Amino acid sequence: MALDGAIFPIIRTVGVDGMLVSFGDRLSEPANRAAIAFRAELDAQGWDGIEESSSSLVSCYVRFDPLYLSHAALRTRLDALMSERDWLGADLPHGRWLHRIPTVYGGKLAPQLGEAAAAAGLSESEAIASLSETRVRVTALGFSPGQPYLGELPECWDIPRQQALTPKVPKGALVVAIRQLVLFGVTAPTGWRHVGQTAATLFRVEAERPFLLAPGDEVVFAPIDEAAFENMRHVPGGGVHSEMLA
């Protein structure tokens, strides 16, 4: 893949102690898969001098100690790792989870479902079926602790962001735009349309695994009614059911 003469995958320097391995210039299923798989393999190899790694939508960021490991040495090792396999076709790492998150769609709790459905060319019932039946991948975490971006949705959901911000959506809000979902971990403004509401707790400071979701995990937003949602609000974790993927 090429962008302005660049051929992907590509390695770029980030500041004095970082490198970024990118597998594309925009979100795609293969590029996201590659970023997650590459980061998992890098962590598994446990190179001395690597202090941190993380994956984004299409890239793997590597922070290192430049007093221990030179830029040239790290680039050589990253080049070698990139050449080991076709990362765009790599398997996702083991240890991933499938999460079923109870979700109210529409109504007073998620008031923009109808608007989003119309933008996607669907009725509200068709929109609920599409959103709740699509098993989406956590493509990246960002914005607040443990907050996921999830995708990709069917092509009909390639709808634009709003032209103006919604001043506030609550913690647990499920919002949609550009074939992606975001599940809010905090109360915040957004330009994405609020289509569902959950009681999920994304950041659990006391837990062994503080973030409920991780890149590569899969999620189903199972539909429930408002009465069931009120009950879920009092259930630890918001009624999320999680199971290890094979």
UniProtKB/TrEMBL annotation:
PANTHER family cross-referenced by the UniProt entry: 5-OXOPROLINASE SUBUNIT B
Protein's name according to its UniProt entry: KipI family sensor histidine kinase inhibitor
Alphabetized UniProt keyword annotations: ATP-binding, Hydrolase, Nucleotide-binding
Top-level taxon in the UniProt lineage: Bacteria
Source species: Salipiger aestuarii
InterPro entries: CT_C_D, Cyclophilin-like_dom_sf, PxpB
Segment forming the signal sequence: none
Residues annotated as domain Carboxyltransferase: 9-213
Molecular functions (GO terms): ATP binding; hydrolase activity
